[in-house]
Amino acid sequence: LSRMRKGLSRSSGKLGDGIGAIFTKRKLDDAALEELEELLISADLGVSTAAKMTAGLAKERFDKEVDPQEVRAALAEQVAERLEPVAKPLDLDGSRKPHVVLVVGVNGSGKTTTIGKLAKQWADAGHKVHLAAGDTFRAAAVEQLQIWGQRTGAPVTARDTGADAAGLAYDALQQAQREGADVLLVDTAGRLHNKANLMAELQKIVRVLKKLDDSAPHDVLLVLDATIGQNAVQQVQTFKELVNVTGLVVTKLDGSARGGVLVALADRFGLPVHAIGVGESAEDMRPFSARAFARALVG
Ligand code: GDP
Fold first, then answer.
1. Domain SRP54-type proteins GTP-binding, which positions (predicted)?
2. Strand 129-132's sheet: what is its strand order?
3. Residue 86 contacts by C-beta under 8 Å, 6 or more apart in sequence?
4. 255: Cβ below 6 Å to ligand 1?
5. Quick count: other Cβ atoms within 10 Å of Cβ 37?
6. Is 172 helix (H, G, I), strand (E, B) or coil?
7. Quick one: pLDDT at residue 14?
8. Which atom of ligand 1 is nearest to the CA of 113?
9. Cβ-count burial of 177 within 10 angstroms (0-12 exposed, 13-18 middle, 19+ buried)?
10. Helical H runs in 125-271?
11. What is the DSSP letter of 227?
12. 277 has which bridge partners?
């Protein structure tokens, strides 16, 4: 958690200090509420979430003297209440052989790294993991996944650059079924600049997986880079139009993270946040804890 706290400290510093600046010897009046709303927006909580949280605070304490500590605690409580329903680890369904997880997201969001971290976590827990290098556009992505395969002992189905991703996903599932794998993680391309092509590709992958297992994919994880702040909201919207996103993994919360966007995402979409990334190595993935995150964010 300390890494996340450090990562969030830039935004939380801003939020925590900002609350201190607004609420020193001050009544909770309209002007103070307006300043608070702006502060929440600047911390990436988004316009509608900021308005709701400010209204929530006003409802309890309008026209009363408040101190920063009280406001921080009240806001942290509101953040935690919004995040608690979405904080859900990704559970493997043992009856599925394999449990198929399709991983989507724009290039650079941390898809391949997240797959590596999940592979490590599940392999360490004694599960048999298989990987599919479905980002067939980038040789580097395929190589990177193969490295994760070596590190975790998970076999990797890969093909040459430019190969058909759906064909590869089909082969990977067939192979994983033959091996009796517990989980198959499928990497995908993230070329969002060509949305129509990406949609066709993702839908084709889903279609061919269903030929071998009509309940697959069992999870569709969207990987989001927290450092893009409010832009993550649009990214979720876009990917929801392309494919049936079932949950999120939010990465790079160790950097100068703009973690406030998680509150906006929870409020707007209610999608489960299965894990967070706090660094580049295999161990740098954490379950998402609503209370710890709320405290770290509000400071
Ligand atoms: P992809 O293009 O979506 O597959 O993204 P990659 O997995 O290749 O990640 C892009 C870059 O972000 C790489 O340099 C990763 O090491 C880095 N990265 C991924 N997750 C995290 C994280 O949680 N924290 C940090 N600091 N870097 C990360």
1. 98-299
2. 156-157, 129-132, 183-186, 99-104, 219-225, 247-251, 273-277, 285-286
3. 265, 266, 270, 271, 272, 273, 288, 290
4. yes
5. 19
6. helix
7. 75
8. 7
9. middle
10. 139-152, 165-179, 195-212, 231-242, 261-269
11. G
12. 285
pLDDT in the model for residue 193:
83
- Taking the C-alpha atoms of residue 168 and residue 158, their distance in angstroms, rounded to an integer, is 7
pLDDT per residue rounded down to tens, the chain (299 residues): 677 777 676 665 678 889 988 988 788 999 999 999 999 999 999 999 999 999 999 998 888 889 999 999 999 999 999 999 999 999 998 899 999 999 999 999 999 999 999 999 999 999 999 999 999 988 899 999 999 999 999 999 999 988 999 999 999 999 999 999 999 999 999 988 889 999 999 999 999 999 999 999 999 999 999 999 999 999 999 999 999 999 999 999 987 678 999 999 999 999 999 999 999 999 999 999 999 999 999 98
- Looking at ligand 1, which residue's alpha carbon is closest to its atom 28? 280
Yes or no: say if 270 and 86 are a contact pair by the CB < 8 Å rule: yes
| Contact criterion met (CB below 8 Å) for 221 and 247 | yes
Structure tokens at 269: 């979409």
Q: Is there an atom of ligand 1 within 6 Å of 111 CB?
A: yes
Atom number of ligand 1 nearest to Cα 276: 23
Q: Is the CB of residue 279 below 6 angstroms from any atom belonging to ligand 1?
A: yes
Going from the Cα of 223 to the center of ligand 1, the distance in angstroms, rounded, reads 10
Block residue for tokens 């706090």:
278
CA nearest neighbour of 205 among 167, 162, 158, 238: 167
Q: What is the pLDDT of residue 152?
A: 96
Alpha carbons within 13 angstroms on the beta-carbon side of residue 63 total 0
pTM of the model: 0.94
Distances (CA, A) of 259 to 14, 43, 57, 125, 209: 12, 8, 21, 29, 34
- Ligand 1 contact via 117 beta carbon (within 6 Å): no
